[in-house]
From TrEMBL:
It comes from Zophobas morio. GO terms for biological process: signal transduction. The chain crosses the membrane at residues 33-59, 65-87, 127-147, 180-206, 248-269, 281-301. GO terms for molecular function: odorant binding; olfactory receptor activity. The keyword Calcium does not apply. It holds the Pfam family 7tm_6. It is found in: Cell membrane. One of its GO terms (cellular component) is plasma membrane. InterPro entries: 7tm6_olfct_rcpt (IPR004117). This is Odorant receptor. It is a multi-pass membrane protein.
Length: 378
């Protein structure tokens, strides 16, 4: 078989990471133009935008204004943490991306390749849908003050404090431009890191499928013992890969899950307070879709890893093990016992990336929306 290019479907994602300045050519950062680009983006756009948004919260008592700030700043602050996690773990992440092209992790037949492609195709569709929702949100955020005529009153896409009078030309235009560059950088950070994380989960799920297929057809091998030893080594590689991935995802998932229900509830609240079918309404709508997809990707692909790894001992049982030698039967039995514990990814040990927390987040978000609506009308 021709070599399967694992990294090919992820090329667009790598490009987005490079645009953020957090994906250098090697496995560490060098003091060069690319590093200066990353430093400039963070110092002039990422940090000031977040800091000036936080300052506004100390000066407002309007629940609608506070909600408009909080529902955006939650994602903005998480982007800062994601950036530092990628930068701090760049060596390990580069190692993970290099490992996917190892010969031992390649599909061995057409059936394995088809099973792998099914998972990758779904990830690719989810990625582009997520990307489309993010781009649509940025478009509506950037244009609603223009389309709604708010620019005449010097309205900006976001409520941000500035230490100068921005209601003068060219300060207004420069401020507007700074906000848009900042939010594009922040959105790209969130989308690229989230998509990269879900791609790692997709790869682990695919490896579990390949291993299951090998185990099912173990009896067809001319040297079953040698093939079984290969399966053990493959399983150990999957476990090591999952452990390294978990080190990166642990804090990311925790920070993503905790405020997601708040963001979802605030988005619904903002939708209920703006004029329907305006550009501002659509900006909140597309943002709500993007936030939902963001958490869905972690939950869905984390759930896929759990399900596919859960099937490994059943796959071992499906081979014609009764034809094996007594010693090989015992070895297969111990392997089956070892693999009965599925691979799970947790958020600081509090909850796992599966569909159940996803539903719980949506329910909690709806409760926040109902509470805010009650407070706003009373």
């Amino acid at each position: 078989m021709t070599k399967f290019e694992w990294s090919l479907p992820n090329k667009t994602n790598y490009l987005l990471l490079k645009i953020c300045g957090i994906w250098p050519e090697g496995d560490q950062y060098q003091f060069n133009l690319y590093f200066l680009f990353f430093l400039t983006s963070a110092v002039f756009f990422l940090y000031p935008h977040n800091l000036c948004q936080i300052i506004v919260l100390f000066y407002t008592s309007d629940i609608t204004v506070a909600g408009a700030i909080i529902f955006v700043i939650l994602s903005d602050l998480i982007a800062v943490v994601k950036m530092h996690l990628v930068v701090g773990n760049i060596k390990m992440l580069k190692k993970l991306t290099a490992a996917i092209d190892n010969e031992e992790l390649q599909p061995q037949n057409a059936a394995q390749e088809r099973a792998v492609m099914d998972g990758i195709d779904f990830w690719r569709k989810s990625f582009y849908f997520f990307l489309s929702a993010g781009i649509s949100t940025l478009f509506f955020w950037g244009t609603f003050p223009i389309l709604d005529g708010g620019y005449k009153e010097y309205k900006r896409p976001f409520i941000v404090w500035y230490p100068y009078d921005f209601k003068k030309s060219p300060y207004y235009e420069l401020t507007y431009m700074h906000q848009m560059i900042s939010i594009i950088f922040i959105a790209n950070l969130n989308m690229s890191v989230d998509s990269f994380a879900s791609a790692l989960l997709t790869f682990i799920a695919a490896q579990c499928e390949i291993l299951s297929d090998k185990l099912k057809n173990l009896h067809q091998e001319t040297d079953a013992r040698r093939a079984f030893v290969g399966c053990i080594k493959h399983h150990l590689q999957i476990i090591r890969y999952a452990d390294d991935t978990s080190k990166f995802l642990d804090l990311v998932v925790f920070l993503q899950f905790v405020p997601s229900s708040v963001s979802f509830g605030l988005t619904l609240f903002q939708l209920s307070t703006v004029v329907p079918f305006t550009s501002q309404f659509y900006s909140f709508l597309t943002y709500g879709i993007a936030v939902t997809l963001e958490i869905f990707m972690y939950c869905w692909f984390g759930n896929e890893v759990e399900l596919k790894s859960h099937n490994i001992p059943y796959a071992a049982y499906e081979c014609q093990w009764f034809e094996f030698s007594k010693s090989l039967k015992y070895e297969l039995m111990f392997f089956t016992l070892r693999t009965q514990k599925p691979i799970k990814f947790s958020a600081k040990g509090l909850f796992y990336t599966s569909l159940e927390p996803f539903v719980r987040i949506l329910r909690t978000g709806w409760s926040y929306f109902a509470l805010l609506s009650t407070i706003n009308t009373s």
